[in-house]
Amino acid sequence: MNVLHQPSTQSVAIGAAEAVRGLRDALVAGDVDRAQAHRWLQPRPPGERDLLSDLAAAEGVEPAVRRLSGFWRRAEVHLEQVRTVSSLEAEVYERVVLPGESLPIVSLVRRESERAPWGVVCTNEAHDERFVLWISVAGDTLDDVAWSRAFTEPGELLMTEDGGVLGHPDRGWLVHVRGPFAPDEWPEGLPESPGGDGGKVVELTAALAASPEERRDQLQWILAAGATTLRLLDGTAAYRPRDERLLLPEALELASRGAMAPAQAFHFWARTRVTDGHVVTDGLHLLGLPELEAPLELFGDKGTTALVEWLATSMVTAERVPSVGTELVIGDRSALMVPGRRGRRRGHSYGRWSANRLEPVTGPFARGSARGSRTRMRVPPTVLEG
Question: Per the confidence metrics, is the pTM higher than 0.85?
Answer without folding.
Answer: no
